[in-house]
Amino acid sequence: MGYVGLCTAATFASRDIRTIGIDIDQARVEQIRRGKAPLHEPQLDSMLKNAVRKKLLDATSDISVASQTDATFLTVGTPSQSDGSINLSYIKNAAEDLGNVLREKRGYHLVVVKSTVVPGTTNGIVKRFLEQSSHKTIGSKLGLCANPEFLKEGTAISDALHPDRIVIGSNDKKSAGELAKLYRRFYGAKLPPVILTSPEAAELVKYASNAFLATKVSFINTIANIAEQIPGVDVGTIAEAIGLDPRIGPLFLKAGPGYGGSCFHKDLQALINYSQNKNYDPILFRATEEANEQQASRVVGMAEKLLGSLSSKRVAVLGLAFKKDTDDIREAASIRVINQLNKKGARVIAYDPMAIPNTKKQLLDMIDYAENAHSALKGSDCAIIMTEWDQFRQLAAKDFQAYMNNTNIVDARRILDPKHYAHLNYVAIGMGPSKA
Ligand code: UGA
Description:
The chain is an alpha/beta fold.
């Protein structure tokens, strides 16, 4: 019942499909049973409340209930290990435990791997442990599919209700047919294109999708860094113009401080590690990651250039979340920037509308926290905008002037209109110096 499991369960239940969420964390289970989402995601809370009230969604820590259902989705985490490879122990345990409870089941049961796993996992470790513990083989009584998800934090519910495509990987027609049937029931006339393929290909689709998106972000950040050297050039114009070419497309061309979140870095590292183990070095993806890592140093470099030295300077960091409308700071660029500011002797005060509790857990009292944007700006020598929260867009030049000690502004998300900041020390990612 993590992020993917919970959003998937809630949306199934919203379409009148009776769903049971299983998790080993008892407190989480109790919270879900009360109809309360244990994580922040727009629309999830109300959807969950409704589903629980209508008895379409229940939660338990007792995995044996899985045998009373027709299908089980494995949505456990696959975190990174120190060498970048993914930790498959949760998915292995889940497959084994599920197999144990399916041993006595008479009817057909479909097992669906939704977790992000490297190619070969469904047909390898999952199949092996499921078959061993259930004493059954994949076929007439037991089905197995790989079915990656493409949910984005912040829009996960709408992504689940209106996906661009459904990818089903299986080795047998029956299991693919059963899963396609479930999705036909779910989406009715609005069924998106369904790609039927092997489990390995389905698993690779997920990595290819995230690797492409991450590379698109590193690509536009690279163009942004070039644009910064050219008077009168703004990367926004370049993105708009190239985005009109349908072969390129307008989305994911927002230059910024580098991508964050629990997926891109983890998945690229896993793909690089997987590929290197197959004796192929995917240099493009290593460059995507390296460009992303360097982007944080560029943000710090911009502040340093404005201030001369960062030592003992008070720097207000506006935004901690890896993107707006979430409290998630996993792999957030803000943390990379704060760590570097700290090393350079700056005194950091940060504000975020949602992500302060999570940041406190990670950074403890390494930095100060403000209760709103204005108090973060108060007495500061430089402001760095790290997350594109709507409330930061509302800030006017006079807010910075009224509160800051020195009006140095680094707009790492490009959310302010440079026209209104020409009289301040305003710089933005991807914006070349103004023409003299
Ligand atoms: C990403 C994918 O977009 C989902 O399709 C996928 O299912 C998910 O990972 C996953 O693997 O579970 P997510 O991590 O929620 O979703 O966030 P994105 O909206 O993709 O943003 C990732 C990062 O890229 C953010 O830090 C965002 O600010 C940054 N970004 C995105 C840019 O800097 N520029 C852009 O133009 C777009």
